[in-house]
Amino acid sequence: xxxxxxxxxxxxxxxxxxxxxxxxxxxxxxxxxxxxxxxxxxxxxxxxxxxxxxxxxxxxxxxxxxxxxxxxxxxxxxxxxxxxxxxxxxxxxxxxxxxxxxxxxxxxxxxxxxxxxxxxxxxxxxxxxxxxxxxxxxxxxxxxxxxxxxxxxxxxxxxxxxxxxxxxxxxxxxxxxxxxxxxxxxxxxxxxxxxxxxxxxxxxxxxxxxxxxxxxxxxxxxxxxxxxxxxxxxxxxxxxxxxxxxxxxxxxxxxxxxxxxxxxxxxxxxxxxxxxxxxxxxxxxxxxxxxxxxxxxxxxxxxxxxxxxxxxxxxxxxxxxxxxxxxxxxxxxxxxxxxxxxxxxxxxxxxxxxxxxxxxxxxxxxxxxxxxxxxxxxxxxxxxxxxxxxxxxxxxxxxxxxxxxxxxxxxxxxxxxxxxxxxxxxxxxxxxxxxxxxxxxxxxxxxxxxxxxxxxxxxxxxxxxxxxxxxxxxxxxxxxxxxxxxxxxxxxxxxxxxxxxxxxxxxxxxxxxxxxxxxxxxxxxxxxxxxxxxxxxxxxxxxxxxxxxxxxxxxxxxxxxxxxxxxxxxxxxxxxxxxxxxxxxxxxxxxxxxxxxxxxxxxxxxxxxxxxxxxxxxxxxxxxxxxxxxxxxxxxxxxxxxxxxxxxxxxxxxxxxxxxxxxxxxxxxxxxxxxxxxxxxxxxxxxxxxxxxxxxxxxxxxxxxxxxxxxxxxxxxxxxxxxxxxxxxxxxxxxxxxxxxxxxxxxxxxxxxxxxxxxxxxxxxxxxxxxxxxxxxxxxxxxxxxxxxxxxxxxxxxxxxxxxxxxxxxxxxxxxxxxxxxxxxxxxxxxxxxxxxxxxxxxxxxxxxxxxxxxxxxxxxxxxxxxxxxxxxxxxxxxxxxxxxxxxxxxxxxxxxxxxxxxxxxxxxxxxxxxxxxxxxxxxxxxxxxxxxxxxxxxxxxxxxxxxxxxxxxxxxxxxxxxxxxxxxxxxxxxxxxxxxxxxxxxxxxxxxxxxxxxxxxxxxxxxxxxxxxxxxxxxxxxxxxxxxxxxxxxxxxxx
Length: 1040
What we know:
Elements: E1 12-17, E2 35-41, E3 44-49, E4 53-57, E5 63-67, E6 73-79, E7 85-91, E8 100-105, E9 123-129, E10 139-144, E11 150-155, E12 160-164, E13 174-179, E14 185-192, E15 197-203, E16 207-211, E17 219-223, E18 232-234, E19 240-243, E20 247-252, E21 255-261, E22 268-272, E23 276-280, E24 316-323, E25 328-336, E26 339-345, E27 348-353, E28 358-363, H1 366-375, H2 379-388, H3 393-410, H4 413-421, H5 429-435, H6 442-454, H7 460-473, H8 476-484, H9 493-503, H10 506-515, H11 519-529, H12 533-541, H13 545-562, H14 564-575, H15 604-612, H16 621-626, H17 665-681, H18 710-729, H19 738-742, H20 761-780, H21 789-798, H22 802-811, H23 815-824, H24 828-838, H25 845-853, H26 857-877, H27 882-889, H28 901-941, E29 962-964, E30 970-972, H29 987-1003, H30 1007-1016, H31 1020-1029, H32 1032-1035
Antiparallel strand pairs: 1-28, 2-3, 3-4, 4-5, 6-7, 7-8, 8-9, 10-11, 11-12, 12-13, 14-15, 15-16, 16-17, 18-19, 19-20, 20-21, 22-23, 23-24, 24-25, 26-27, 27-28, 29-30
Helix pairs in contact: 1-2, 2-3, 3-4, 4-6, 6-7, 7-9, 9-10, 10-11, 11-12, 11-13, 12-13, 12-15, 13-14, 14-17, 17-18, 18-20, 21-22, 22-23, 23-24, 23-25, 24-25, 25-26, 25-27, 30-31
Family: Belongs to the VPS11 family.
Protein name: E3 ubiquitin-protein ligase PEP5
Subcellular location: Endomembrane system; Vacuole membrane
């Protein structure tokens, strides 16, 4: 490949370097014409001349010089990078003297210090003479390690000498010939590897390597072609770069690497920065022979350019700067008069011409380079260049954007999209999307949106657009890949589901909802779009109590409409605390791939299979398919479920789901009965509501009984009230179509044969109501719930539930209301029964009963014997005074006096006998009172004669001294306590009477005690009489 095929750019600016005082001349530091060698490093350009001097020129062109070889000349220079040491190779003035290598240490030399003549004196730390076999051969090239432990010297006779050791500190060094050949050495270079040091050796006809650290080092030939002197250079990556007329070659320790075709004669190669190779070609009319492999000999090579060598002023020397990384020519120009040397320092390239002119090449800044590339639409090179210059991501993305825009304008939409894909994350996606919204470019837009999602940078609008692209293209395969293979959810889930629903791809919407546990969306699609109620119910059953409660609150009404029995069973389990915990949601299987969008697609077999997995399913798959299911009552209470199956949770309130049963009262009854039974089971021993229709409860966990909370008690009241209302309010006939859809008989009704045209509907309605009323009565008798009796009484009155009304009156001990209730219904037998049952408990019933019995002739005729019996009972128990009895019977003219003739006779006779007894007692009290008064008068007016002979205390014969009391008791003096003034035998009775007297006086003002006794007594008159008999009233203070 010829060099003209490489792209060429002007990435360097050429400018002459002139003296500040005379623009026609170079700076004074460069005006000497006897310069023999050039190098640079550590902020200086270093020149050596034929007189043995070395000149160091700084950036301000100040010169510092020192004499390296007195009377000789310098042939080679090397400035180390890691230390301030300059190595020179030269010759002294004596003829036939071997070349000498000198090490000059500038660490202690102040190069900035001004001197009068500019001469400095660095220390020469080491001098090494190069000799080989007693013969003197010129040094063609040399290489040195930065740590100064090895130096290799190549001679013109084809010999390579390796000098090892600490070249600065050790006094002696060892020189070893490592290669001898017939071709001159044109290039040397060290490559430092991890465990070895490789020396490249280049001759005019071969490239070799030598491992200087090996135990038994050997020479390895990498190539059978070499290069001319000055055409071998080491790169920054420690590769050997060779320039031959046809190409540039690169070698590493293993062999030849990449090459760059550049056909042109080459006189020297120089490495600049990290990627640039400076190629100098010979003058076009030069008489200096150039080396061509295979055609030249050693004698044809001018190793030592003669001082003052002149060329024609019309000779043109071409200089090319090649970018080895990006493979283009960064600069190419011709210089009149030839080039003597090229050095690189201070970020620029310095070119020294044979006509003593100096030129500087300055690299353009990166934005300028990019601008040049943009003008030529070379965006790939611009991108590579930006990467090499370590541009930030935003700047590189801007280049990709320009490249994409360029390709888009050219109509290369695929290529443009490839570039736009590289801008994702930095460039606003809408910029790209707007360009590809045309229907003809939908494939490119799809690829961009896919990549946007894969990087997690898409929003809801991007997801919508991508899915719309899939659906418009009907690309089900890519839709599958997008939805099914995205494990990290790099798109907006809700948007994806919405778009799939709108496009009719319900299977994909369901798949996404189930996979990422979007329960609400899953159920919404299943119920409203696909109408797959069995799968929806099975899905809810796997969600666990918390999620099931939330979703059933929303969808219970719809599920009850289509699957009432199964939905009711699930609600029962949820509200009774027996629902299993959530099962692990395994990734759903891939749906069958549809060829086009479909509406509601029902898979009967899969739906039935899903239904059979329900935890409440009682039948097999065949039963489900045939529409036959086991009724709720088929689950026996005796079937115990192990404790570990269910996790404990607080069951939700049943009233939350009651509105969903608005069109299904029968299932509401079933639901409430089971929940009520379970909720009350822990508080009482289960009570069967009715033998005809017993409530079957589902097995629950066996746990220790705990005190019910206030919320549980309130929940039981709500359930109780709702059940009672349903039992009493249901007046509908039996729904004969109930079993057609759900194939199960509601358990609260007794099993009856299907209706036929010969069966009277009213008979079944009566039987139904009888069952419900019996259950309602059993519910009222349930003592486990402290329900509101007044509310229940209102319900029973509204629905004319007589048994319930009577029971509630009895529970509240409202016996008079019971009697009045039956009186209003003119149920004489019931009135009689109530009189017998409740009369002993409430005497106020008898006047009501007597009034009722005598209210009508028919009633009196029917209850005459009972009326007489009541009168006898009143008389025997003395329950009512005769006047009250007569008043009760005299409300109308139905009862005659003959009915109570015997009763009045007995009462009069009884009262007459009581009067006689009272008169006898009065006479006896008066006689006793009179005797007491006479005794008192006798004591006050007559002397008392004591004739007692025995002591009343000890019973012994009286002996003086004695003590006699007026009560006729006598005692020995010793038998009476000292200072005793009362008879020991009568003192107790006297004190008791005195205490009673003081109590009566104290209670005379305690009116509250009097009224309390009066209120609690059955006969108040007897209390007043008792107060008068004790003369308590006499002590009461009169208050004006």
